[in-house]
Amino acid sequence: MANAHFEIGIQFNGIKGSYYSLYKNNNIANLTNVPVSKRGKFIEFSQILESEEAQFQQFQLYAYSDSNWDASIPIKKQITDMLNNAVQQNQPIQIQFKVTYQIIRTLDKTLKDCNGEGIYLPNFHISLLRLLTIGNTYLAKPFDNLSAEQQQKYTKDAHLNLKCKLDNESQKFDNNIQYWILTESKQEYKNKNHDEFNDGIKFYILSDKYSSALLGFSIITIYTSVILVIGKVIKSVFSGNIDMLMYSEQPFPDKLIKVCEAIGYSRTKRDLIKENLLYYELIDLLRSPEIIKMLTGSYSKMIKDQRKKWLENEENLEILRLKKKQQ
């Protein structure tokens, strides 16, 4: 053991409430080994009784914290008001003290021995992952909503060993050749030599589907661009070939926007076939000015209609003025 972190905080109204740290200590005092002669009541545990002196230690935390309570004056006032309201209205309030600690240890001598069993690491990693596309970046994460049985199935153990020879079986151990190996392990391998399971960590990963037409562009950029160029003029907002998609505003872009929304929806459902189909349908529409004009309306017709409506309104107003004069 090398160091420890200890924290005490106060939690209001359960895990969904507010948490405030009261005490933090990142330093320990009086770290000593406990000899067998002073283990007293602890010898009832066979693991402690059989351990070496350096394995069983005692340490003490400093009584004072490293810093003051990290709550601001408004937060303290809010807590005071909350407690006062609970007292005055005779309403119960849940207050919990939350204690967390972390032990930091150095590599003990079991890891300095090439003939030793090393360290067994239970539940070390999750072997089944998904690679999500987020803009121009990628994020690997476990699958969501796994059942307890599935979590147990895909959570794997590992083993960390110090190796002092190369893969040549005839070579003897050499302390000048030292390197770590991290191998996939199982419970039954805990006490076996690491050479019996010398394969590295294995992962299975499911990548996002994507349309080959969109390769090189993020999904957000390409679909947002298509929607925006239909609705308004794009002036160097997006980089790359998107700048060449210059469309002036359309009178009624709703139908084309629905196609774009359908592409985006297919993307979220990871339906590659429908995404490709709708995307190329949209490209075909954009290649035909007459179809675009038919779907989104004609500027000249819109202006003529507006002119006609304006003339009709003027004519109606003139008729009303004449009627008032005649009266």
Question: What descriptive keywords fit this protein?
Answer:
alpha+beta, 3-stranded antiparallel β-sheet, 327 residues, elongated
Short description:
This is Piezo non-specific cation channel cap domain-containing protein. This protein is of the alpha+beta class and 327 residues long. Helix content is 33%, strand content 24%.
Order of strands across the widest beta sheet? 2-1-5
Radius of gyration over all CA atoms, rounded: 35 Å
List the total number of helices.
Answer: 8
The count of DSSP E runs of length 2 or more, i.e. the number of strands, is 11
Query: What class, by secondary structure content?
Result: alpha+beta
The shape is: elongated
State the distance separating the first and last CA atoms: 105 Å
Q: Point out poorly predicted stretches.
A: 188-197, 211-248
The sequence of SSEs as H and E is: EEEHEHEEEEHEEEHHHHH
Relative strand content: 15-25%
Helix content bin = 25-40%
Number of structural units classed as domains: 2
Rounded average pLDDT: 70
What about the largest sheet?
Answer: 3 strands, antiparallel
Transmembrane segments: 213-234
Protein name: Piezo non-specific cation channel cap domain-containing protein
Organism: Ichthyophthirius multifiliis (White spot disease agent)
GO molecular function: mechanosensitive monoatomic ion channel activity; monoatomic cation channel activity
SSE diagram, text form:
Blueprint: E1 3-12, E2 19-25, E3 28-33, H1 46-49, E4 57-61, H2 73-88, E5 95-104, E6 119-126, E7 128-134, E8 137-142, H3 148-154, E9 155-163, E10 179-185, E11 204-207, H4 219-231, H5 254-268, H6 272-287, H7 289-296, H8 299-326
Parallel strand pairs: 7-11
Antiparallel strand pairs: 1-2, 1-5, 3-4, 6-9, 7-8, 9-10
Helix pairs in contact: 4-5, 5-6
